[in-house]
Specification:
The chain has 4 helices and no strands. The chain has helices at about 1-15, 20-30, 35-80, 80-110. The longest helix is centred in the middle third of the chain and has 43 residues, at about 35-80. About 0% of the residues are buried.
């Protein structure tokens, strides 16, 4: 009983002495809410940045794709044996990657025996 009484007295002292000052401090430094215009401008600016970045990525994708396509066509025309060897190496590499990722993924799953 005595312990609860001490806690109640501490709580009352806190409310009388500190709480009022803390409320004044909170009121003095209350954060300002941004206006609707500021939020809308932020959203439109972000959308424009995303759109610009996506167009850059798309242009880079097409540039690399054209470069690879013409390189493969040139290799096919100049020496078809090297073309077939490169295709075989890429195929084996793709299969190795699939098997390795499957084993890695299978090793992480929980197995109930």
């Amino acid at each position: 009983m005595k312990k609860n009484k001490v806690l109640d007295e501490d709580q009352l002292w806190f409310q009388k002495q500190v709480r009022v000052d803390l409320e004044k401090l909170d009121a003095a430094f209350e954060p300002e809410m941004p206006s609707l215009d500021e939020i809308e401008s932020l959203v439109t600016k972000h959308k424009q940045e995303i759109r610009r970045r996506l167009w850059k990525e798309l242009a880079l994708f097409w540039l690399v794709a054209i470069f690879l396509l013409f390189g493969m066509m040139w290799m096919l025309e100049s020496n078809w044996i090297w073309f077939m060897a490169l295709q075989a190496v890429v195929g084996v590499g793709a299969l190795w990657y699939i098997v390795a990722s499957y084993q890695r993924k299978g090793g992480r799953t929980w197995r109930n025996n």
